[in-house]
Amino acid sequence: MTVPRTALKKWEKVREFALGLPGATEDFPWGDTVAKVNKKVFVFLGAPDSGYPLGVTVKLTDEAVHAHALTSPGAEPAGYGLGRSGWVRVPLEPAGAPAAGLLCEWVEESYRVIAPKRLAAELDAR
Asked: Which domain of life is it from (predicted)?
């Protein structure tokens, strides 16, 4: 399965943004790419070569932001029961998929929910 170049560029921008947040690290559980802070995942990035459509999964606890994310083409509550905790999977490939800038806003929102307060404060100080 070939990943469309626009989706791959978005994925790369979102990954770079996520890893630039204070204390963020990259890990590869289950062969997928995730970004963690304080050993906790704040964004599931999947893998461009996984054979699955490319997408990101973020935790959005603000009701309006969560609802907005779910209006994206193909977006759905995350599997494995994570959707009940506010996690949303957003595909990057469909026409009308969110732009990288909006995805990065959602990644930051997810980071702020997961990160220790001191790291979120460091982000605010930037």
From this structure: Bacteria
